[in-house]
Specification:
The chain has 4 domains: 167 residues, Molybdenum Cofactor Biosythetic Enzyme, Chain A (3-Layer(aba) Sandwich); 53 residues, Molybdopterin biosynthesis moea protein, domain 2 (Alpha-Beta Complex), CATH 3.90.105.10; 79 residues, Beta Complex (Molybdopterin biosynthesis moeA protein, domain 3), CATH 2.170.190; 69 residues, MoeA, C-terminal, domain IV (Beta-clip), CATH 2.40.340. Helix content is 19%, strand content 29%. It has 8 helices and 26 strands. Strands 7-4-6-5-9-8 form a 6-stranded mixed β-sheet, with no helix packed on it. The chain has a 6-stranded mixed β-sheet with strand order 16-13-17-21-20-18, with helices on both faces. Strands 19, 22, 23, 24, 25 and 26 form a 6-stranded mixed β-sheet that branches. The protein is elongated, with a radius of gyration of 31 Å. It starts with a helix and ends with a strand.
Length: 395
């Protein structure tokens, strides 16, 4: 175990090893469209009817025979007789956007290109057949693949499905993620503090990220630094799709989490070349991925961003997310980094420039709340100098 920790495994190598051990879940459920936003389709959705299922007007105006408008201009209008029935040559009928095209008509002239005079209408513009007419199946054709399996449903997708008469969709279950906080010094929030104690906050932050990433969090009671109790807590939560353990990942006398995983399954990685977050451990027990986050809050957050969220996405069949929201701005002050490590430096944006908060200080949680995002400094350079344009990944 110590050898693995001191190896400071390269970040990309650690990702590859861990992610290859993750298998997407296959549980599915059927839910109404109202409950499907942000969920992932587990089967193709095929249209069972045409949208629209009738020929419809695409504009407010008059349904006409296009041939009747030949040569029509504002100075030489064509005069048609207004009707409330079928449209025959020489007649027209008032229509509204979305209303059915009357029998006999093959085009619509916009209201602003007409002038009504009693029971007649002057047509001031020439139109061609099909102008401002929505054909049957123009939006969606019966038998058309609307959305494929694996698609992440968005509000607009749900509206399209609803327009095609879809009521329910089959989706993948959200990954269940068990979050196990550990430590002698952490106590439940709200409990009076004594010297040497802190309120446990990592599970709150982690659960929020799990939810935002498409997972379903389940927080356990705090587990003290006892090897047997930690093993038992992991065993008790193997019904989850993923386990995240907070704390106990280093190599101190009270850091028992990696050994507990080794006793139950396999530790794949212990020690990653990231700063903060070096003590991160990654393992598998009974096919379930386990992320062991360092107890220091910022180090834990980095481990969660780098390993936890991508694994939740893979478990839930959630497609690769659109590129993170980033900005390229000049540094107001230099960023120092730890050579040989990917350094995650918290920064804030002030007046169009980037101000580093700190590149170290894994326990300074307030730096996250003050930060607008972070800058990743690669391991082969010694930081960035003032004035350097850097990429800020926004929180």
């Amino acid at each position: 175990m110590d050898r693995l920790f001191r190896s400071r495994m390269d970040l990309d190598v650690a990702k590859k090893i861990f992610f290859e051990a993750v298998r997407p879940i296959e549980r599915k459920e059927s839910v109404p469209l109202e409950a499907a936003n942000g969920r992932v389709l587990a089967s193709d959705v095929v249209a069972e009817l045409n949208v629209p299922h009738y020929r419809r007007a695409a504009m407010d105006g008059y349904a006409i025979h296009a041939d009747d408008t030949l040569g029509a201009t504002t100075s030489s209008p064509v005069v048609l007789i207004l009707t409330d029935g079928d449209v025959s040559p020489g007649t027209c009928r008032r229509v509204h956007t979305g209303s059915a095209i009357p029998r006999g008509a093959d085009a619509v002239v916009m209201l602003e290109d007409t002038r009504a005079i009693g029971t007649t209408v002057e047509i001031l513009s020439q139109v061609h057949p099909g102008k401002h007419v929505g054909d049957i199946g123009e939006d969606v054709a019966s038998g058309e693949l609307l959305l494929p399996s694996g698609h992440l449903l968005r509000p607009g997708d749900l509206a399209v499905l609803a327009s095609a008469g879809i009521i329910d969709v089959e989706i993948y279950h959200r990954p269940l993620v068990a979050i196990i906080p550990t430590g002698e010094e952490v106590v439940p929030r709200g409990k009076p503090l004594h010297t040497g104690e802190v309120w446990e906050t990592n599970s709150l932050m982690t659960s929020c990220y799990v939810t935002n990433s498409g997972g379903f969090p389940r927080i356990t009671n705090i587990v003290t630094d006892d090897p047997e109790l930690i093993r038992q807590a992991i065993q008790d939560n193997l019904d989850a799709d993923m386990i995240i353990v907070s704390g106990g990942t280093s190599v101190g006398e009270r850091d028992h989490v990696p050994a507990a995983i080794e006793a139950l399954g396999e530790v794949l990685v212990h020690g990653v070349a990231i700063s903060p977050g070096k003590p991160t451990a990654l393992g598998v027990v009974e096919g379930k991925p386990i992320l062991c986050m360092p107890g220091y809050p910022v180090a834990g957050l980095v481990a969660l961003l780098v390993f936890g969220i991508p694994v939740i996405h893979k478990l839930g069949h959630i497609p690769p997310q659109s590129p993170k929201t980033t900005l390229k701005l000049p540094l107001k002050e230099k960023i120092t980094s730890r050579q040989g490590y990917h350094t995650y430096a918290r920064v804030r944006i002030i007046d169009g420039s980037v101000e580093p908060l700190m590149a170290s200080g894994a326990g300074i949680l307030s730096s996250v709340a003050k930060a607008d995002g972070y800058v990743v400094v690669p391991p082969n350079i010694e930081g960035y100098g003032a004035g350097t344009e850097v990429e800020v990944i926004l929180f």
